[in-house]
Amino acid sequence: MQERVKKSMKKKFFVLQFVIGIIVALIAAAIMIDGSIFGENHAGIATILGIIGIGIIASSSIWTLKK
User: How far apart are CA 26 and CA 52, in angstroms?
Assistant: First the structure.
């Protein structure tokens, strides 16, 4: 029983981490499209946010939970 609860908690954490990564990557894409909030040179901020978002997605281990 406890093992099932632990697996369920891990799955919820991995899914949450995956969703946060998607949100960060989408924010970066939105900044790339219309980054007038940050001034003229906003490509650097958007690039860094995109890399962080992709890194969060890659480290979420959601793909191993399909079993």
Answer: 11
